[in-house]
Amino acid sequence: MYSRKPFYIIVAALFLVGLALMLHRYFVYEVPWLPGEKRQIWSIEAKVEFEANDKPVKASLAIPGSQPGFTLMNESAASPGYGLSFIEANGSSRAEWSIRNASGHQELYYKVDMMLDPFARGPLSTKIPTMMQADVAEPYSTAMDQVLSLAEERSSDGITLTRELLKELNNRGQNAELLAQYKAPGPLLVELLHRANVPARLLKGLELEDGRRRQPLINVVQVYSGEPNGQYEIFNPVTGDQGRQEQLLLWEYHSAPVLDLVGGSNSRVTFTMLEQEQPVNVALAKKFDQPHWINVSLYNLPLEEQALFKGILLIPIGVLVVVFLRIIVGIKTSGTFMPVLIAMAFIQTSLLTGLVGFLIIVGTGLILRSYLSHLNLLLVARISAVIIMVIGMIGFFSIVAYQLGLTEGMKITFFPMIILAWTIERMSILWEEEGPKEVVKQGGGSLMVAVVAFLAMNSELVRHLTFNFLGLQLIVMAVVLLLGNYTGYRLTELKRFKPLVDELNVDEQRGDEQKSGKQKHD
């Protein structure tokens, strides 16, 4: 006897792989299960101001990219009269403006949209920076050594040393007060760590707060543990906080100047930020803009192809509905998957318009087809004639609908003409062989299945899941294979057992009566 074990292994594999792909999509790339969700977007505008010295000007501004916690959505710049290029230099991205001659006050603008994304990854450098120990004059040198000596006693590596140094500097002791006059907290902390041979670099970050204007960048310090894997932590040298803050966007993270200006003076960069929300589909379209092998998404395709696949990916859902209603429920249809194609037409036309159009075309087609049956034409010629009639009817009804001002009626052109022609042919033959009752049964069954498939395929949730979770197709296939293995009774066949159930109920009732009479007699 043939073993079914390989079949069930294949079904289980399809289901598990599909489920794994969906879960990976949700947990790694934060694609939501439900449609209509929104994502938090920060719109940030950097304003560069300086005085041009009546000579050629080149201004290079550090700009952020996708990084842990944020995904870059859009970026643009406003610079009338200036040439603009986005360049990569030493691993960092920069916006570079240039002009042959400029004088007086100048203003340049750069705008970026960043999506708050806890699963985002980016080019935050894990390369250990080069350490530079500068010569420090007294009494600052002695103060540094004393602060380092105290902190090193209570630490075990670069990360714990940084924590202890921040405690010492924030205690505001005599040495801390003296060093506060020497340098700002960020550069001071980096210099202390380099003095202790701990790799660290100074980064520039922007604290995000809705509606804030003219905000400067703040210093944060990236401290490496010294291990070969380049593990690091980020510290705020002012507050002493360790780790990435949710509302902190790193703007410059390669130890390069934020603004490099040639041909101008008195420069400054300020930031304005605004929090907003965007639909998740808009956000995902940008998030998947740079795919890799496991992050393949339909959002990478051109919009025209995306729109096409949004419809194509609904077909397996309609197929699943047809398989369930035919195999489990036992509804008869005219053609195996004709209801799916009719449901696709309903999506384009709307349900009511589609039903009316379908009934009009098929009804009229059956009348005309009854005449062709008397001509004894060959099958190919007869089908061809029916196709031409269907096209003529669709054109005629569209013109009539337009003349009557019924614009919905013009959508009848979305019906698949070949499928309608074959439906008319099959129903006509069925009428001749089985009679009108069977035509009504199969035609009504086809329409009912098409309506159920339409309701499933037109669901916003189903549209969202099929387009964003391609693994769902494997799960649908696994379920279809399982349904194809079903050999039991259809639900519509259970009515055959009704007389048997009635007879059993009668026998049970008689037994109860006899038992009751016997008890009474006793």
Structure characterization notes:
- The chain has 522 residues and is an alpha+beta fold.
- The protein folds into 3 domains: 38-124 and 262-288, Immunoglobulin-like (Sandwich), CATH 2.60.40; 139-251, no CATH class; 304-468, no CATH class.
- It is built from 16 helices and 10 strands.
- The strands form 2 sheets. Strands 1, 2, 3, 4, 9 and 10 form a 6-stranded antiparallel sheet that branches.
- The chain is elongated.
- It starts with a helix and ends with a helix.
- 30% of the residues are buried.
- The mean pLDDT is 81.
Please outline the helices and strands:
Elements lengths: L4 H25 L8 E25 L6 E10 L4 E7 L2 E26 L22 H14 L4 H13 L3 H9 L2 H11 L4 E8 L10 E7 L7 E4 L12 E5 L6 E4 L1 E16 H8 L15 H10 L2 H15 L8 H12 L1 H22 L6 H25 L13 H18 L1 H22 L2 H9 L2 H14 L13 H24 L1
Helix pairs in contact: 1-15, 2-3, 2-4, 8-9, 8-13, 8-15, 9-10, 9-13, 10-11, 10-12, 11-12, 12-13
Protein name: Gonadoliberin III
Pfam families: 7TM_transglut (PF14402), Transglut_i_TM (PF14400)
Keywords: Membrane, Transmembrane, Transmembrane helix
Give keywords:
single chain, 522 residues, alpha+beta, Immunoglobulin-like, six-stranded antiparallel β-sheet, four-stranded antiparallel β-sheet, 21% strand
Residues in β-strands, percent:
15-25%
Structural class: alpha+beta
The largest β sheet comes out as: 6 strands, antiparallel
Number of structural units classed as domains: 3
Report the C-alpha radius of gyration, rounded: 37 Å
